[in-house]
TrEMBL record, chain A:
The keyword NADP does not apply. This is 3-isopropylmalate dehydratase. It comes from Natronosalvus hydrolyticus. NCBIfam families: leuD (TIGR00171), PRK01641.1 (NF002458). It holds the Pfam family Aconitase_C.
UniProtKB/TrEMBL annotation, chain B:
Residues 8-458 form the Aconitase/3-isopropylmalate dehydratase large subunit alpha/beta/alpha domain. InterPro entries: 3-IsopropMal_deHydase_lsu, Acnase/IPM_dHydase_lsu_aba_1/3, Acoase/IPM_deHydtase_lsu_aba, Aconitase_4Fe-4S_BS, Aconitase_4Fe-4S_dom, IPM_dehydratase_rel_enz, IPMI_cat. [4Fe-4S] cluster binds at C347, C407, C410. Transmembrane segments: none annotated. The gene is leuC. This is 3-isopropylmalate dehydratase large subunit. GO terms for biological process: L-leucine biosynthetic process. Heterodimer of LeuC and LeuD. Keywords: 4Fe-4S, Amino-acid biosynthesis, Branched-chain amino acid biosynthesis, Iron, Iron-sulfur, Leucine biosynthesis, Lyase, Metal-binding. Its cofactor is [4Fe-4S] cluster.
Length: 208, 473
């Protein structure tokens, strides 16, 4: 039953990082469409950034996600407009299943950020300099710990704390554990019906 | 914040309540589903023992994986067959209407919604597909959503969203000869950037927009997302109402006149307030083609490809990479860029008027022998109507492959894919690396007439230099 779904609050995320450099990284790069011919999200992790990571004969290319030192990373550090393009939730699902729990970047495409929120993954934003400094540090310190405080909008690493920003609704949803909106909205079923019936094009839950 | 815009009015009418997150819970008037992004959502519903709350406001079709060569089942691709079978089972169990290939009403979800009169002004529309913004052409609020949000909509008939800012994009003046809606939107994205619309919905307005037919308006709203805007819309007007009248699922007679009053009431007020206003002069535009690997990397067909260093700092590296991938040189024009494949299709440009305009250019000409050219109508109905006009014969005689309806080579999820480093003149919406099925493939976005001109000449061509014939329609 829906009542049994427990939604954990996501006040903080800690772990090592991996830097994915470049602006406008689209969801076709994150998960090429040919890997979406599936009816579940299981097993998508191995296909994350597939075409950047593997050659035609499946041998590994140089890519941060292929580096042994980054295999346990849980914080992905990205640049501007990350996740643009298609609405495919397969993209954050693939990254989550690869091991990512949170993103820090210059900016995120809206649908991508919304999809991440629906999975309980924060997308934190910071200015170019802050992000690039963190990316360089992550590359030099693949086993360096990053502590994200979602509630206070800070990231701590290398003995220092920097400010990041989180969209208000996202912060509230994560910190208060209300990011899975199904049960939340289901509880308003009566109000939903009233709204529906107030519209000129709906009657008895049908289109008129 | 904006006030008195269509966005504000339709948002307010559909708001159920404010959620603890600060988001609004919005009622969804039409939920369109397809085979790629919905199966996992139905799975999540089952896990939670939930049912579809508003099956009568939900409508399904199959488009992404559907073969365009044959309707025969089972599909030769096992994965495609599994996805189709899953969708069939899900809609059957939930009592959702399905524009199945056997009904003759199947097609790309953003083509069939309007075609069947499902898409109407003043409604809210969502679909697990970023090009849902297309439906904004009718003055609907239409957004692409992810699979977890599909679960929300299936289970509750609503979606949690934050209200966004509204940018009015005023396109003044008249479009020049052979310049189309597609060129307007490519120009908008080029100027405002692929991320320029993040946080905004776009209201397209102005003389050049008002003069467009509904199909042109759909092409524009379709690509809102390529400019970062999750939704784009155009205020409904007489062109909209005329297009809708008489379609299935649109009220008739007096009921139509009554509904029209509602549609009129949601138009943006003359004194509406916007968060931003941008003006573009349509008369300055020429056909736009992309030289790179984002839809924002466009250029007029006779203009020089920019030097990466001449672009904004944050665009330099992306441009360098894109030019290397595309093998183009700054300073040169895209005119004459050799192509191997021509794709006339997709939810951006595969409607009847697109095919008609292209056919006028194709008639009496032949496709370059080195080019693989295909026309993929946006829906079975578009295909049928085109065949009734004899457009299929024109394309076939010229050497085009005339295929069945679907997303096809826009994203290469069926057998229609680029091979190796083929270059494709494409009427679709995305030129991302790997988008058309080959990671080395090269996509050049352009309007549909430019696509067939490229097919005929084997290279990107300024369509304004070609004459067209009149076809008795």
């Amino acid at each position: 039953m829906s009542d049994e779904v427990t939604i954990p609050s996501v006040e903080s995320v800690s772990g090592t990082g991996v830097a994915i450099r470049g602006n406008d990284i689209d969801t076709d790069q994150i998960i090429p469409a040919r890997f979406m011919k599936v009816v579940t999200f299981d097993g998508l992790g191995e296909f994350a950034f597939f075409d950047q990571r593997f050659t035609d004969d499946d041998s590994q290319k140089e890519h941060p996600l292929n580096e042994p030192a980054h295999q346990d990373a849980s914080v992905m550090v990205t640049n501007a407009n990350f996740g643009c393009g298609s609405s495919r939730e397969h993209a954050p699902q693939a990254l989550m299943r690869w091991g990512i729990d949170a993103f820090i970047g210059e900016s995120f495409a809206e649908i991508f950020a919304g999809n991440c929120l629906a999975l309980g993954m924060p997308t934190l934003e910071a200015d170019t300099e802050t992000v690039e400094t963190l990316q360089s540090w992550v590359e030099a310190n693949p086993d360096g710990e990053i502590d994200i405080d979602v509630a206070n909008e800070t990231v701590t690493y290398d003995g220092k704390t920097v400010d990041v920003t989180v969209d208000d609704a996202q912060r509230k949803a994560l910190v208060e554990g209300v990011w899975d909106t199904t049960a939340l909205m289901k509880a308003n079923a009566e109000a939903v019906r009233e709204t529906a019936e107030s519209l000129p094009y709906v009657e008895d839950g049908k289109r008129v | 914040m904006s006030e008195g815009t269509l966005y504000d009015k339709v948002w307010d009418r559909h708001t159920v309540t404010r959620l603890p997150t600060g988001q609004d819970q919005l009622f969804v008037g039409l939920h369109l589903i397809h085979e790629v992004t919905s199966p996992q959502a139905f799975g999540m519903l089952q896990e939670r023992d939930l049912e579809v709350a508003y099956p009568d406001l939900t409508h399904a079709t199959v488009d992404h994986i559907v073969p365009t060569s044959s309707k025969e089942r089972p599909y030769t691709d096992d994965a495609a067959e599994e996805m189709m079978a899953e969708l069939e089972a899900n809609v059957r169990e939930s009592g959702i209407e399905f524009s199945h290939p056997d009904t003759g009403e199947q097609g790309i979800v953003h083509v069939i919604g309007p075609e069947q009169g499902l898409t109407q002004p003043g409604t809210t529309i969502v679909c697990g597909d970023s090009h849902t913004s297309t439906h904004g052409a009718f003055g609907a609020l239409a957004f692409g959503i992810g699979t977890s949000q599909i679960r929300d909509v299936l289970a509750t008939g609503t979606i949690a969203m934050e209200k966004q800012k509204v940018r009015k994009i005023e396109v003044t003046g008249e479009l020049g000869d052979s310049v189309e809606a597609k060129d307007i939107i490519l120009e908008i994205i080029r100027r405002l950037g692929t991320e320029g619309g993040v946080g905004y919905v776009y209201e397209y307005a102005g003389e050049a927009i008002e003069n467009l037919d509904m199909e042109g308006r759909m092409s524009i709203c379709n690509m809102s997302i390529e400019g970062g805007a999750r939704a784009g819309y155009i205020n409904p007007d007489e062109t909209t109402y005329e297009w809708l009248e008489g379609r299935d699922r649109v009220p008739e007679g007096e009921a139509f006149e009554e509904r029209k009053k509602y549609w009129e009431s949601v138009r943006s007020d003359d004194d509406a307030e916007y968060d931003d206003v941008v003006t573009i002069d349509a008369s300055e535009l020429e056909p736009v083609v992309t030289w790179g690997t984002t839809p924002g990397q466009g250029v007029g067909v006779t203009e020089p490809i920019p030097e990466p260093e001449s672009l904004a700092d944050d665009k330099v590296e992306t441009a360098r990479r894109a030019q290397k991938h595309m093998r183009v040189e700054p300073g040169e024009t895209m005119e004459g860029y050799p192509i191997d494949v021509a794709f006339l299709g997709s939810c951006t440009n595969a409607r009847l008027p697109d095919l008609r305009r292209a056919a006028r250019l194709v008639k009496g000409r032949t496709v370059d022998p080195n080019v693989r050219a295909m026309v993929v109508p946006g829906s079975q109905q578009v295909k049928k109507a085109a065949e009734e006009e004899g457009l299929d014969e024109i394309f076939i005689e010229a050497g085009f492959d005339w295929r069945g309806a679907g997303c096809s080579m826009c994203l290469g999820m069926n057998e229609d894919q680029l091979e190796g480093d083929e270059a494709c003149a494409s009427s679709s919406n995305r030129n991302f690396v790997g988008r058309q099925g080959s990671k080395d493939g090269r996509t050049v976005l352009m309007n549909p007439r430019m696509v067939v001109a490229a097919a005929i000449n084997g290279a990107v061509t300024d369509v304004r230099t070609m004459k067209e014939v009149t076809i008795n329609e």
